[in-house]
Amino acid sequence: MEEADRAIQEVDWEKLRAMSDDKIRAAWAWDKDMTWPTDEELAEFDLVIPAKSRRKPPKEAAE
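The chain above was modelled as a monomer; its predicted structure follows.
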């Protein structure tokens, strides 16, 4: 887990956000273990929102 945390901190997020999907795919093309989901596979994915994010704000915050 520490290695993953370090790797995430080293990502240039601004550069990544500026890249198109095609450029991101091309940048990862060297990694033969990396596969991209097909449109059919993406259609089967379920969006999971963590419970903490679904909680309603306190009444005083909503007013």
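Residues 2-62 form one domain.
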